[in-house]
Amino acid sequence: MTESSQLRILVADDHDLLRDMLQLYLGKEPDISVETVADFNAAFERVKDDPVFDLVLLDYSMPGMTGLEGMQRIQDLPGDHRVGIISGTATRDVAQEALEKGAAGFVPKTLSAKSLINAVRFMAAGEQFTPIEFLRAPEPERNHPLAQKLSRREMDVLKGLTEGKSNKEIARDLDIREPTVKLHVKTLYRKIGVANRTQAALIAKEQGLY
């Protein structure tokens, strides 16, 4: 904690409403001082200019982040930077990868205000946070014969196909690039023995996967 006895928190998120809500939640606490920025580049420059933040919270999918590369860039700046990831769409695999790479924590955007405040204090104190229920939520579909042929990300893409989504929409939902979705689509076609997205969706539905 800084000399002022206040935790200094920097929140970077490109959604105005969420950014305002986080500032409102955290700013009500007498021991927390919060600043917000709207993209990764602004966060990077802010930390570089003034490294005395107890915690930097980065939205996983905001402009400039490039997945977890943004987190790594701030961690690599001179000083000791505690960086947490906040996301509404990132998968369990992303959360686990972030923690393995030294993230202060992973915070789902579904977290309640009270839980969020507790999580921020926990991370700023030097602990690593992520909701246990997020990491341990059951995934019964992984026992499905069709699911066993696919990676977790291919499963996510297949789910998008069953919902009639375009590659662009799937990419947006999963916070990945559209060419990456196209690659996953091509690979899952081969693995489950289909020629197009309609056949893939039909098989997934007929076999009770989604």
Describe it.
The chain is of the alpha/beta class and 210 residues long. It folds into two domains: 7-136, Response regulator (Rossmann fold); 140-205, Arc Repressor Mutant, subunit A (Orthogonal Bundle), CATH 1.10.10.10. 47% of the residues lie in helices and 12% in strands. It contains ten helices and five strands; from the N terminus they run E-H-E-H-E-H-E-H-E-H-H-H-H-H-H. A five-stranded parallel sheet has the order 2-1-3-4-5, with helices on both faces. Strand 3 (55-59), helix 3 (69-75) and strand 4 (83-87) form a beta-alpha-beta unit. Helix 7 (152-162) packs across helix 8 (167-174) and helix 7 (152-162) packs across helix 9. It starts with 6 loop residues before the first strand and ends with a helix.
**How big a fraction of the residues is strand?**
5-15%
- In the predicted model, the low-confidence regions spanning at least 5 consecutive residues are none
CATH class of the largest domain: Alpha Beta
Largest sheet: 5 strands, parallel
Q: Based on the structure, what is the oligomeric state of the protein chains? A: single chain
Count of structural domains: 2
Mean pLDDT: 88
Q: Helical content, roughly?
A: 40-55%
Structural class of the helices, strands and pairings?
alpha/beta
Query: What is the third-level CATH name, the topology of the largest domain?
Result: Rossmann fold
Q: In angstroms, what is the radius of gyration? A: 19 Å
CATH architecture of the largest domain: 3-Layer(aba) Sandwich
Q: CATH homologous superfamily of the largest domain?
A: Response regulator
End-to-end distance: 47 Å
How many helices? The count is 10
Written as H for each helix and E for each strand, in order along the chain, the element string is: EHEHEHEHEHHHHHH
Shape: elongated
Strand order of the biggest β-sheet: 2-1-3-4-5
**Count of beta strands:** 5
